Structure formats: structure tokens, C-alpha cells
Give the backbone structure.
Amino acid sequence: EDQVTQSPEALRLQEGESSSLNCSYTVSGLRGLFWYRQDPGKGPEFLFTLYSAGEEKEKERLKATLTKKESFLHITAPKPEDSATYLCAVQAGKRGSQGNLIFGKGTKLSVKP
Amino acid sequence: NAGVTQTPKFQVLKTGQSMTLQCAQDMNHNSMYWYRQDPGMGLRLIYYSASEGTTDKGEVPNGYNVSRLNKREFSLRLESAAPSQTSVYFCASGSRAGGQGDIQYFGAGTRLSVL
């Protein structure tokens, strides 16, 4: 069964304190791994797509990496405005799924000034 | 460019009432999706539409129906609402119609309470 597990569930950082969020997955034929950011009361906002092990993508203070079993979202010198819930999702390759995404439960990040 | 627009933003229903959640996208995407999000659980797919004129069940379709009215609009109907359907509902549209790397763009959500 395709599955996505994110850890930790919640993470509290001081401003400037770098850390990483983890997304472990088991999926039959990975077609893509997605990171989204979700602010309270809003819909998920797309951040990155990764397709193959070894791939990395960066955007401002965020860097996403991918291995065959997991992905990390590294946050360098975070600011309070980085506080949000970060969602990981995988797109499986099995037939009939129409490329549907399977989401993890998310990591709630709080950055204190 | 509005992206994905959902209406209403909030709704309170009594058990047994019916309602339709509306979703429209202006990105010319072929695929559209309906999810629900509950505390402590990830987004779960209710129904999706890979293209105009087609719809398919997702992970949690029971108690819901959908209509792909045209390429822009995808509605979700609750025929007889139950308290278990209290949730936040998100509509999304996909850039590559289920192809590799199909990035989904989400609306702001509809917060539904069923009493």
C-alpha cells in the first residue's frame, strides 16, 4: 500500500535555527514527490516537485532533497514568516490512479523571533 | 488571475440537508480534484475528474457526488449531510492531467459543519 509519513508532527525553532523536515514514503513506482506549504485557514501552496533520487531544488531559505526512500525539506536560518504546515505528497505510478497524489499528515513549523 | 475559486467559504448544515460546493478554475487545466482535510489526517481524495466529461472515485467517495459541468467547473454535492462530513473541503486543478509531475493548485477551501 502506498504510504507517506512525515516527521516530526510539530517543530518549534528559534529564528535563525536551521533544521530539516522528513518525508518517508513507500510507493509503487514514484512519478513525483511534492512539497506544499499550508497557512492556517488557507489552501496548500505548491513549493517543489522532485522526480528522481539525488535531485535537489531550492527556493529562498528552503531546500528539498530526494532519496529512494525519503525526502527532506531543509530550512536554513528560518524567519517567523516561515511558520506554516508543510505537506509532502507522492504521485504513484500504478495504473488507474490517474496520477493522484497521496499526502502525508504534515509537519507544523513554528518559528519564534 | 484568480486560480482556483471555491464557494461558499463557510457553511453550516443540519443533518439530512443537502448542498453543493462549487469550484471553478481559470488556468485551462484538464484535471480537477476534490479533497477533504480533517484534523490529524492528511488530505484525502474524494473524487477527481481527469478531463471534461469524466469523473472517478477517490479514497473516500461515500456520501458524495460530483459533476464536471465544463472544463472550468467541478462541483461536489452532499445529498444528505451527516456529522461525519464535517470537514474542510479543498478543490484543486492539475497542470498535466495526471501525467508525471502533475502539479495540483488548490483553492482556499470550504469549511463545512454538519450539526
